[in-house]
Amino acid sequence: MAEKQEEPSNAQNGEPDNAEEGEGKKKKKVKREDLPPFEIVTGERLPAIFFKFQFRNVEYSSGRNKTFLCYVIETQGKESVTSRGYLEDEHAAAHAEIAFFNTILPKCESSLRYNVTWYVSSSPCVTCADRITETLRKNKNLRLTIMVGRLFMWEEPEMQAALKKMKSAGCKLRIMKPQDFEYVWQNFVEQEEGEEAKAFVPWEDIQENFQYYEEKLAEILH
Question: What is the pTM (predicted TM-score) of this model?
Fold first, then answer.
């Protein structure tokens, strides 16, 4: 497994590095109601630096205190429609998973079928897992597959129970393989303007870490 990572710079977390900007950010919090309740980027791609840090499937997720959720929605009716985008839960009144159901897909029309795939930096917390379970049980025409880079607090009994409930509700929970990280890189990560798309470069231990988390998930969901 990968060793514990160093704390990221503020820039890697999308935060200013210098103290002056940090103070400005603190002042802005006073007017938090002026900020969007969550950040939605549709039709655009997340910065490469965020992907390389936040999606990295390390064992110790030090400093990775945001959730990045890339989604693909296939809506099947008289015509099939596919939409995609990503959420991150900065300025969020709710985590990215709950924000998805509150805004991106607030209602499932009974006459349609929805196949949804998430590519998420880490698995959901207990609260988000419960919301996923509830939503799937209420909407039998919704199919949800969640591909995660890491498992969040997987050793906690309450977390394990929440993941099992998700499975029983029909959620397909999977660990992202190297090929899945490459898919996210190609479809959800922005490239430098005017340059050809850069190939995905796997980090050290990406395959070993995938196998580690895959084994842990299998033990939880057996």
Answer: 0.78
